[in-house]
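Ligand-bound model needed. iron/sulfur cluster.
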Amino acid sequence: MKQIGITTTVPIEVLLAAGYQPVDLNNIFITDPNPDKLVNIAERAGFPLNTCTWIKGIYGVCISRKIDTVLCVTTGDCSNTIMLMEVLKLKKLKVIPFAYPEKPDKEKMHQALKNLAESLGTTIEAAEVINARIKPARKAVWKLDELTWRNNQVTGYENHLWLVSSSDFNRDDVTYTGQLDKLVAECRQRLSYPDNWLRLGYIGVPPVFASDFFNYLEDNEAHVVFNEIQHQFSMPSPGESLAEQYTSYTYPYSIYDRLKDIKKEARKRHLDGIIHYVQAFCHRGIGDIIFRESLGLPMLTLEGNQEFYLTQHIKTRIEAFLDMIRRKRARL
Ligand code: SF4
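Prediction:
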């Protein structure tokens, strides 16, 4: 299959129906043994130092892996992607634009999927067949998520990793499903986390320092039982059609749609507090004002930039936050 780079979660069913193998460029970037090198490729090409690290990393992956076709989301993701797209065109990559509707609207979503399918030489009907074919992968990742918050048997990092990878199923949904089924069976045999551990939610774009972050929280007896955007990437509300599935997907739409989902999941998963991650130079950081006023739970905002590990400063802030929640819990 011919590879197609994706810059965020997109309707991969349409790409697969058109004979492409979707490759999530973010995941390739962040799992690279040397992500700094990929960022350097972008900076040497002229990306300003104050450009978001994810954008620079995506560019670095395209160039170093010789990706020649990229699907870029022009509405519903990131304004920086628009200019990234122009630079990729300059470098002679084939760029296919895709726009989510401005608001969640099933009819408009259907039309957007139809347009994408036609531009790639396939149909929505063929994409629905793929949707049915990859259902075992989606069911396996939902099961892992449920074991995370209901049974407390899955680490926050495992939850993050497998949910974030559902954007392209690690480029092979059959292998992904097999590996995940094995992990789910193994998790069922584990002891649950103790009841006195804190239960946290993580909201915001995926962090650049993921493994350090989740492990550090667990070293301090705090378990992340909700990874908001990663959970959305797994398409938790599939409905009856692709148009419904991508209409219920909250990430491309207003922050208030995300807020409703976060509040619902916070109640369901009995969260003690929330960590909001913002990426340096990202417009989404402004949304922190809204989350702070609306969530009604203790919240810590952390900003990451280009350090792929937790700095001592961030560790101290996490410890103080966990301490504060524990003291609050003890007073109740
Ligand atoms: S973190 Fe923000 S600025 Fe960076 S790619 Fe994502 S949405 Fe865009």
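The radius of gyration is 20 Å.
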